[in-house]
Specification:
Layout: H1 2-7, H2 10-19, E1 23-30, E2 37-39, E3 53-55, H3 58-66, E4 70-72, H4 79-85, E5 90-91, H5 96-102, E6 110-113, E7 122-128, H6 129-134, H7 137-172, E8 176-179, H8 182-202, H9 204-226, H10 228-235
Parallel strand pairs: 3-4, 3-5, 6-8
Antiparallel strand pairs: 1-7, 2-5, 2-6
Helix pairs in contact: 2-9, 3-8, 5-7, 8-9, 9-10
Length: 237
Amino acid sequence: MNGWLYDGGGMGLYQEVYDKFGLVPLVCGNTGVQMTGWFRKEIKSADDFKGLKMRIPGLAGRVYQKLGVDVRLLPGGEIFPALERGVIDAAEFVGPYLDRQLGLQKVAKYYYTTGWHETATVSEVAINKVAWDKLPPDLKAVVENACAACNVISEAWCQKNNAEAFEDLVKNQGVIAQPLPDSVVAALRKGTEEVIAEAVAKDPLVKKVNDSYFAYLAKYKSWTALSEGVYHSKVLA
């Protein structure tokens, strides 16, 4: 994600999208990989999604709808009571550290990984373009580099705290953490492709961003298969 944003044309497209709103966007944080979410019952197949009431926002919610999920939009503070009372059956928030702070492990024990929908979630700062244009180049550089530092530091913070929280959830709080079944991932992939295709067909700018990102990803995948992929499957193991 950072490679595409900083060196693959992503930030230029980011700005193009925000031009119509009179804003200047800067990447200013990243949670790293998130989790699929918390479920009160085990997910064994895509059929288990049918009729499931789940808190899940954005494009991922549209994907789940294609699989029969009853999507609910709730702010973070309302997730725990909704799960506790059975208003919803499942919920996605962020990752182990922040999810534990909400107490979600107390009302749902099945914790699925990895977050297929948010593998490198970007946070942003949006600045009024009129105000931004008044800044001299040196102050613009200060803001840009401060945001870039926050981007790196926040991701490192999440990695450290998520690792510790995950261990606690599994070892001490009875959480059952496991990946989604392959058949479920395949169904979610199909739904994702459909949602993206629908968005691309409606808006030329969406298509422009989509084409840029996936062209970059294609090159990255061939590289990472021989670098990080080998590390995780052979060296780290």
